[in-house]
Write a structure and sequence with these properties.
Number of strands: 8
CATH superfamily of the largest domain: Alpha/Beta hydrolase fold, catalytic domain
Helix content: 25-40%
Number of domains: 2
Structural class: alpha/beta
Length: 315
């Protein structure tokens, strides 16, 4: 399925930004809160169609079930009679989570918690992740390997920072300043609340104000809050690229070559060629979670069609 956009969508930045301006009809989600073994919670937003097939959607950094790319998929996939579970990773549902820790790119134990909560109601489960969520589901597939729950049939991951250090370096480049600032503003606001709630955490409000890069944020908060030495240790241990060789169910990774967030090592060509279960597609255009084809939001469903095509292939 080729992605051949018009002239306007052959800019990685324009493609990335454009989807954020879309408006979608209100989606009627049914929220279910699941409690975690560490006395926290994860909020799941469902769309029910009566299907025995469930697609679980994992958002990107500082996203939620309300992110435009999640809503777009939810609306489209509902029409194809799949149940939808739009995950709000810890602290992303509009309510702070209970712990000093939160979510991160490799917290795959939370996928197990979610699967355990929903599996009894479904015969088939598909994992769909975007950006950070794409890294998460790909890592999960490799970690589980042959031991993955047999109800999980396929994994799809789009715009994936498969090498997290490379991605962090890309986002730190001058041309990506706006993206970086938007991420940091949201992340720092959440940690500001955590510092107030957990004054013993070892971070001061001044430390937080001094953060100007994602590396600094991951050095000071993400790594320490989740048991890693520093940002580089966190990135190294959680980048999904190293887990691809162990994947044992059909998995699609779709990374545009003009994605402004991805560096050279985020395109796992070697791993893709050596694992028969793993398919890597690298269209020339697409941006980061963009893949727009129309200025009409109602017709802009290339990415959603790619999801359906992969799910239903060889069934």
């Amino acid at each position: 399925m080729n992605y051949n956009p018009s002239f306007f969508f052959r800019s990685g930045h324009f493609n990335t930004i454009f989807r954020t301006f879309f408006t979608f009809p209100m989606v009627e989600y049914f929220r279910k809160r699941i409690n975690t073994p560490d006395d926290d919670f994860i909020d799941l937003d469902f769309i029910y169609t009566g299907s025995k097939k469930l697609i679980i959607i994992f958002h990107g950094l500082e996203g939620s079930s309300g992110s435009k790319y999640v809503l777009s998929n939810a609306i489209y996939l509902k029409k194809h009679h799949y149940d939808i579970c739009a995950v709000n990773l810890r602290g992303c549902s509009g309510e702070p989570n209970k712990l000093y820790s939160s979510y991160h790119s490799g917290k795959t134990e939370d996928i197990d918690i979610i699967i355990n909560a929903v599996e009894d109601d479904y015969d088939e489960i598909y994992l769909l992740g975007y950006s950070l969520g794409g890294n998460l589901v790909t890592k999960y597939g490799g970690e589980k390997a042959s031991n993955i729950n047999n109800k999980i049939k396929k994994i799809m991951a789009f715009s994936v920072p498969a090498d997290m250090m490379e991605s962090a370096l890309e986002i730190s480049k001058p041309q990506n300043y706006l993206y970086k600032q938007l991420f940091l503003k949201s992340l720092k606001n959440k940690v500001k609340q955590k510092i107030e709630k957990f004054p013993e955490c070892g971070i001061t409000q001044q430390d937080l104000k001094n953060i100007s890069t994602l590396k600094q944020f991951d050095d000071i908060y993400t790594s320490k809050a989740h048991g890693f030495e520093d940002a580089e240790d966190y990135w190294k241990k959680n980048s999904c690229r190293q887990f691809i060789p162990e994947i044992k169910i059909p998995t699609l990774m779709l990374n545009a070559m003009d994605d402004p967030f991805l560096g050279e090592k985020c395109y796992p060509f070697k791993e893709g060629a050596e694992n028969k279960y793993f398919t890597l597609e690298t269209p020339r255009y697409g941006g980061h979670v963009g893949f727009n084809i129309s200025f009409d939001a109602g017709k802009n469903n290339w990415l959603e069609k790619r999801v359906i095509l992969f799910i239903e292939k060889n069934k």
